[in-house]
From TrEMBL:
It comes from the Bacteria. InterPro entries: Chr_Tranpt_l_chain, Chromate_transpt. The chain crosses the membrane at residues 93-117, 123-145, 237-256, 268-288, 342-363, 375-401, 421-442, 449-468. The gene is chrA_1. This is Chromate efflux transporter. Belongs to the chromate ion transporter (CHR) (TC 2.A.51) family. Keywords: Cell membrane, Membrane, Transmembrane, Transmembrane helix. Pfam families: Chromate_transp. It is a multi-pass membrane protein. It is found in: Cell membrane. The lineage of its organism: Bacteria, Pseudomonadati, Pseudomonadota, Alphaproteobacteria, Hyphomicrobiales.
Amino acid sequence: MANLAKDTPKAGPGRAGDIVPLPEAVRTWVRVAALSFGGPAGQIAVMHRILVDEKRWIGEHRFLHALNYCMLLPGPEAHQLAIYIGWLLNRTLGGVIAGVLFVLPGFLSILALSYIYVLFGNVIFIEGLFFGLKCAVLAVVLQAVFRIGGRALKNRVMAAIAAAAFVAIFFLHIPFPLIIIAAGLIGYMGGRAGLAAFKVGGGHKAGSGTILEDRDSALGEDVPVHARANLAWSMKISAILSALWLLPVAGIALALGPANVFAKIGVFFSQMAVVTFGGAYAVLAYVAQEAVQRFGWLQPGEMLDGLGMAETTPGPLIMVVQFVGFLAGYRDPGALDPLMTATLAAMLTTWVTFLPSFLWIFLGAPFIERMRGNAALAGAMSAITAAVVGVILNLAIWFGLHVLFAEVRAISWGAWSMDVPVIGSVVWPSLVLTGLAAFAIFRFRMSVVATLLLSAGLGIAWTLLVSWGR
C-alpha cells in the first residue's frame, strides 16, 4: 500500500502551532457552513467528507473521538464538533472561527425569514408556504424517530430506556432535563460496570470506504502541544467565556427586571444550553413544552413554522430557537419598535444558545483528548441516545396532534395526563399532505430539503386553490 502520508497536506507559512494555514482553514469552514443542511447527521457528514476525505486534515478515529465527546454535551453536537476540530487544527482562534462561521449563515437566513413571517405572514402565498412546511416537518420528525431508534435501540435495555423516557415525558410530564440526567447516570454506571448492553455506542455514521488513519492525516495521531491538558489555560478561557455568557444575562435581569422579555429569554435559553442533551429534535420537545405552554411566546403551529425555516437553511437545527426569541420580542416590545425588539431578542437568543458550546469544548476537550475509549462515557452516551428516542416520539405525537387536528383536549387520571384529539376536527388537507411527505421520505428516500420544498409547493398550491374557490 502506498504511503498515504506523502499526500497529506502540511501547514504552510502562518502562525506557529497551526496544523493547517489559517486562511485556508477559514475558507474551508465557510464552505462547510454553506453546505450544512439536513440536520446534525447531514452536517457531520459534510464535515467528514471535507475535513477527513478531501482535505485529509484529521483522521477517522480522531474525528469519531471528537464526535463522541460532543454527543455527551448539552447543545448542538455538530456545532461543537466544528469548534473542537477548528481548535485542534488552529488553536483557540481556529475554534472560535469555526464555531462562528458554522452559525452565521443560518442566523442571517432565519432572521430574514422571520421578518417575512411577521410582516407578510397573512399573505396567501406565505400562508401556503408554511402550511406545507408544517406537514413536511411532521414527516421529518417521524423519520428522526425511526433513524435514531434504529441506531440506538440495539437491545432490550436500550428499548426499555426509550420506553421509560416516553412514558415519563408524555404521561407524567417529567421535565426533559431530569429524564436525560437519569438516563446518563444509568448508562454511566452500566458502562463502568462493563455491561454489554451499554457498549452499543451512539455516534452518527461518519462515512464509509477507505479509512484515513490518524497517523496519515495532517493532524497526526499525537496530541498537539496546544491541545495538551493545561488546567490553568482551561480555567482562564472558561472564566472569560462564562463572563461573556452570564454577565449580559445578569445585567439585563437586574436592569430591566426578571419579568422583562429580554430577561426571560436570557435566563430560559441559558438554562436550555445547560440541560438539553440529545440533539435538536430532543431540544425542541423542551422548547415547545416551555415556550408554548409556559411562556406563551408562540403557538404550536408556529413552532413548526420555525422548524421548517431551520430545516431549509444552513446551520444547526437548533437555530429554530432564534425564531422563538424573535417572536417573543416582537409580541412584547415594551417601549421599543417591535421589529427592533424582535431583532435584539433573536440576537440574545443566539448568543446564549451557542456561546456555551465554546465553553464546553475549550474547558473539556484538552482532557478528553487523553480519554479515548472510556467505557463509562460511552455507556452514558448510549443511554442518553436511547432516552432521546422516547423524547422525540413524544415530540412527533405533540406535533401531529396540533397539525392534523383543529381541536385537542386534555384528559387526566391521577398523576397521569395526556392530550387527545377530537376525531371530528381532523384537518384533511394536513393529513393528506403529511402522508405524501412521509411517503416521499420513507418510500422514495427523498432528502429532507427536497421533501420540504415539495411540500411547500403543494401547500402554496392548495392555499391558492382554496382562496380562488371562495
